[in-house]
Predict the 3D structure of the following.
Amino acid sequence: MNSYIFPGQGAQFSGMGKALYDQYPLAKDLFEQANIILQFKITDLMFAGSDEDLRQTKVTQPAIFLHSVISAMCVTDFAPDMVAGHSLGEFSALVAAKALSFEEGLLLVSARAQAMQKACEAEPSTMAAVMGLADEKVEEICASISGVVVPANYNCPGQLVISGAIPAVEEACEALKSAGAKRALRLPVGGAFHSPLMEPARLELAEAIQKTPFETPICPIYQNVDGNPQTHPHTIKQNLLMQLTAPVRWAQSVQNMVAHGATRFIECGPGNVLQGLVRKNAADVQVEGCSC
């Protein structure tokens, strides 16, 4: 069974999407539609922008979404048995599975990016990658810190990302290293994604999600908040409402997909981070990038 997976923020690079634009008329049309929908030429920034340009949240998230969704749409035999996306990638997965239209998905991603940017500016915050420690120990240490710091991304066994206020994350990193973590390093991100500090962004995005029509997807989507397959539009929408402040349960998602028959994982979008994470969660499955 084929599972298509879609990456989140951090996979962007200058030149992303240019080959798709040049090779596929459908891709060119969709990129030009995106320029109109967003009311700025995101293609200029994707194809020739600097790393600094692409680090702007209002650019990063739509850029990764566009590269991912258009890659999937240009696959001639696109027939997923299941889909999943990491954080931002969940929106790409929903569009690829036809639960959301291309335009509605892009508008939601743009709204999400702007809401998250505001939340990031409201309070200095960050994230850190923790390697080589059991999830339960990381959870225990985060709970012992007085400031806001929580588990944010359950990526694979022995790799968990924490998120929160800068002083609390730094204190947690020291405690985690003392407890035996191989590494506990701050990530170059501008905010505490998937933590309580994203609550203002969640409230702002919730209004946009509630107004957006969702359809029944063509296959189950394994959602971040619990890693379980969903097909009912109301449930999908409710899970998406919680996504910004809840942890990404990626390891659980991959393990559940394998348990439900996934034998081949295809990553659609920039980079190959998810391919590596799938291999760490399920050693015996076929993993590859998008064919287009």
User: Anything to note?
Assistant: The longest strand covers residues 149-156. The chain has 13 helices and ten strands.
